[in-house]
Each structure stands twice: as C-alpha cells, then as structure tokens.
Amino acid sequence: MITRRKLLKAGAATGLAYGFGGLAAPAIAQGAKIKLGYVSPQTGPLASFGESDAYNIASFLATEAGKNFEIIVKDSQSNPNRAADVAKELILSDEINLMLVASTPENTNPVATTCEAEGIPCISTKAPWQPWFIGQQGNPGDPQSWKPFDFAYHYFWGLEDVVAVFTNMWAQLDTNKKVGGLFPNDADGNAWGDPNVGLKPGLAQAGFELLDPGRYQNLTDDFTAQVNAFKDGQCDIITGVVIPPDFTTFWNQAKQQGFNPKAVTVAKAILFPQSVETLGPAGHNLSSEVWWSAQHPFKSSLTGQSAGELAADFTDKTGRPWTQPIGFIHSLFEMATNVMGRVDDVTDAEAVAAAIASSKVDTIVGRVEWNGQGVPPFAAKNVTKTPLVGGQWRRKDDGTFDLVIVDNKTAPNIPTAGTMEALA
C-alpha cells in the first residue's frame, strides 16, 4: 500500500529559520507554514463540542508561535463516515503535517484510524480513552488481539475515572444505589455499556447496581421504554453517555411520566450551559463529569494564561459563558507547538510521532506525558490521562446556570465550591 508517508520520504523539505520559544527550529521549506489539520463537529448533534473552535483557532494564530502555522479546518457534521472522509482529504489533498482532533469517539476514532492507515501523526483528546483505543481495534471484543498505534496519540480520562467521580458524588446522597443506564448504539454507548469493560464492574465494586435496558439509536424521539424500566427497577440514580438533544428528550419525557430520581449524572449531554438552560428549572442540580473549568489550577504553556484568564477571555471576546472544551482545544495547539518545535523536519512523520511520544508538556488542562502512568500496559504507548472531577449545575434567579464542582477526591488540587444536592 502506498501511503502519504511513503510518498513524503521522496520529497523531504529543506531548512528554515523559525524557532518556538527557544525550542529547536523545525526544518521545512523556507517561508512555508506548518500545516495542521483539524476535524471538528461544527454542525449536527455534537456541535456544542465545537462551539469554542473559532475562538481557540483565532487566539492561537494570533500568538507568536501561531504565525508559523496554517490550520485547515474540516466539519465532520457529527458523522463518523464524514469524519473519515475529511481526514483523508486533509492528508492527501491538503498534505498536512499533523492532525488534531477532538470531541467524542464519533469524531476522534475515524480520524485517528485514517491517520494510522496513512502514516500521518495525530493528537486527539475529548473522548474517554477506552472507546478511543478499544473502539479502533479490529476486534474490540478480543483483548488478546489489541495492538498499539504508531501514529495516533490520545490524552483524556478513562471510564475508571468517571466511575470514581460519579460514585463519589452519589455517595454524598442518601440513595438505594440502584442506577439506570442510558447507553446509545454508538462507540461511546457500546463502550460505557459493555458489561466487562464499561461502567458496570466499577459501579458494582463501589456498591452500586446498574440496570441497563439496552441500546437505543441516537436522535430517538421516544424514551418511554427506558423510563418504564427505570421506574420498575426503582432507580434512584440515572447515568449514561448521551448526546445533548437525546437527553433533553429523555428528561422532558421522564418528568412528564412522573419519574423523579434523586440524581441524574450523565456524560456528554449536559457539559454545556446551553444544554441545561433549554431545560429551565428541570436543569437545576443535574450533574456531570468536569474535565476543565475556570477554577482548574493550570496555566497555558503557549500564552501563560491561567484557566480562569482563558475562560474570561472567551467570555469577553464572544459574550458567551465559558465551556469545558475551551481548555482542551487550547491544549491541542499547545501540543502542536511543542511537538513541531522539537523536530528537525516537520514532514518526517516518524520523527513527529516520536516527538509526540516523548512529550512532557504542562498545559492548560494539566500535564501531558505519555509515560504509562495509570493506564493498562496495552494502552500505555498511546494514552495518557488528564484529571477529572464532578460538578452540578445550579440555576440562578436570571435563568442561567453555574457549574459548581462538588467532588474532587480524584483530583484534590482542583478546588470544590459546594457539595452534592439531591434533585427536587
């Protein structure tokens, strides 16, 4: 198979005089810019994850380091097949030097898989590591067949972390420890709902019983079967990994059908203020994982901004409240700058991949270093973890919401601002 990487070997570029903050100057054609590909769900049901992209990209290009880069953005339209197609366009037509991708396995996985097949280095984030790593394997159900990647590298948290965060939050409440699960038929849902490597074993170990009524299709308009299953199972708690429009449908129908659990803690769906604002009073005290906030104690290696300063700058420039993806998308450009500043030839894909693997970067989301810490041996080469805490949405008098961190046992350096409250 002739890949882009093999073709590049015949046309190595020649030197130049750019340097990044004292790092080694990369060698590309004189006056050329380093090409970054970026695949994002700009439209479709995952568009909330890409809301800060325009801000992040403009901010990066305005930095001194950013002047050395060209960023080519493609919209995946929240569709895995489209994500794979545009990734291939970026590699073959746009001839990028490095791929960046984020925003759920539906977006990260097809892009990373395409990069691996074409021999192009890829850095990804904003997807739990199990659906990212296992979901790309030829046989996800056979751990013996799983293989590491040569060009795809990922940083984020894992299902073990979300289990710890969720159960720590629930332990603050008086419940019967019966948990109903909402798991769609997609990469995330199949990973989270897997009885062997998903939430179930970890919840059981923490003393919680998971009721899984089975998979449903994304963008369904009727959750009656799930609501009835949870009512019959006397579930005090609801969890899952749900796209935003589906959670709105589920929660509205649950309330209409008289189902009132004590806690609803779901991933993906209620990460964003606009997602809970659409629910009105019914959004009060919904809870979720928190992977980044204005209170996180980290600084950008690119701009020196604190998390709070970055969040405030976003609000100042856009007029919108900060959201969790801001920090992680910013960190992708921190990683690109650091990695490309440590290679002699940015067109040498193996050298770029090696530079990614040897990264030790203190970013706006924490330390990114592929050292195997806290990750099983099979994923240690390609996965490094970032911290996770738990938060709850509190509705204010004006109808807007604040995300309050209520549990930090998994990352004590990230401060809490309250304790868990039961749903009314």
UniProtKB/TrEMBL annotation:
The keyword Signal applies. Keywords: Amino-acid transport, Signal, Transport. The keyword Cell cycle does not apply. Pfam families: Peripla_BP_6. Residues 33-371 form the Leucine-binding protein domain. Gene3D superfamilies: 3.40.50.2300. Belongs to the leucine-binding protein family. Residues 1-24 form the signal peptide. One of its GO terms (biological process) is amino acid transport. This is ABC transporter substrate-binding protein.
